[in-house]
Write a structure and sequence with these properties.
Blueprint (H helix, E strand, L loop, with lengths): L19 E6 L3 E2 L5 H4 L9 E15 L7 E5 L6 E3 L5 E18 L6 H18 L1
Antiparallel strand pairs: 1-6, 2-6, 3-4, 3-5, 3-6
Length: 132
């Protein structure tokens, strides 16, 4: 490869940070049911991470965001899930028959201090009494 040739895309280097918790999963998609939006460049909102789980077949995951080096990963049931970083532009491409779903994660809420816990419980009790 000459210095003028672009380098091949590399694998997705992103890793999930600690302290995330799952909050939603998509339905299972196939090569026939994958939403068109996932096949085009798109991103997640700030603070939202994703894991692309391939259940069968193969799915190409490409990161195309100009803030990152180009990355391409062929996801299968035997590879780790594809990691989707918040706000980073990416898309997927089925490679033949495939089933997959996306799991969304975000930072776990900070634990409440003792006084906040008590106030929250009191508010819940009042709300329950107001319903009666």
């Amino acid at each position: 490869m000459s210095a003028d040739e672009p380098s091949a895309p590399r694998a997705n280097p992103a890793r999930l940070p600690n302290g995330l918790e799952p909050y939603r999963r998509t339905p299972v998609f196939t090569e026939e049911t994958v939403p068109a939006a996932l096949l085009r460049d798109h991103d997640t909102k700030a603070g939202t991470w994703g894991l692309i789980h391939v259940l069968s077949g193969q799915l190409r995951y490409r990161i195309t965001d100009p803030r990152r080096a180009p990355a391409e990963t062929l996801l299968t049931p035997d590879t780790p899930p594809g990691v989707v970083e918040p706000t980073i532009v990416h898309h997927v491409e089925p490679v033949g028959a495939v089933t997959f779903q996306v799991e969304f994660l975000r930072a776990a809420p900070a634990p409440l201090c003792r006084y906040e816990e008590l106030a929250q419980r009191e508010n819940q009790l009042r709300a329950a009494q107001d319903k009666d």
